[in-house]
Structures are given as structure tokens and as C-alpha cells.
Amino acid sequence: MPQAKTNAMRLLEQAHVSYEVLAYEYDEDDLSGVTAAQRLGVDPEMVFKTLVLRGSKQPIIVCLLPVAATLDLKKLAVLCGEKRVEPVHVKELLPLTGYMRGGCSPIGMKKNFPVCADSSLASQPQVLVNAGKRGVQLKLDPQDLIAFCHITLGDIT
Question: Global pTM?
Fold first, then answer.
């Protein structure tokens, strides 16, 4: 059965950005990106999780980092020109972005929020980000993702 298109897929197609869809069986009790990488048989360094945070100046900031990495909130705040940043509560995720936990894509949120990513994103030959649905990843060229999402790169881990 063909994969139903997500909003992220439609937006990439409209912009003529090439991508590949990778689907896997997910477990409601383990939505980690490391598990997703294992199930897809790919290096976790190329799989990027999407985090949504609140800043003091910019109400919402989207952040991408390798699934096995831990975000350094102070480094992200400096990169974004904020005094501090904090993760949004999981209950706010769907109303803010249109996506649920474990299915949050940096592409196609309800609004165009600023996107920051760990600089390691640019050095990958291909990257995976969530397609906007649990169990579905988009594989694409990191330069295409950087350009499409207007990503600011920096050391945030």
C-alpha cells in the first residue's frame, strides 16, 4: 500500500526538492530517533530529531540535532540571540506546529518558525528528518533542507 503524503512531502514536491520516504514500524512506548535509525538500518548521526522550544524574543524556535545527541540549551540560546530557551510542553506541540510528539517535522509546521540545527547536519551526505507522521522519515540532501527551512547552523550539542 503506498504511503499517504504528508504536508511536508507536498511542500517539498511543490518546491521541487527531491526526497525519499523511509517507513518503519514504531512502538508507541519508544518513539526515540535512535530506535528509528536502528529500525531503518542507518547511522544515527544522519537522523535528526526535531525539537520545539520557546525563547524570550522569538516565541517559538525549531531545533534539529542528531538523534543520539543532547541539546545544550545555553548554546542554542546564544545561536538564536536569546537570553534563554526552554522546550515547549508536549501538550502544546500539536496546537503550535500541527504535529504530534514522535511525528514532528521541521517542514510544514502551521507557521514558519525560525529553524536552528547542529552544524553536523551540513557535513552529512544525506539526512533523515521526520515526515510529519510517526514511523515515516524523509531522506534528503542536507543542503536542500538547509535552504528550504532557512536553517541557522551552529554548535548546539
Answer: 0.94
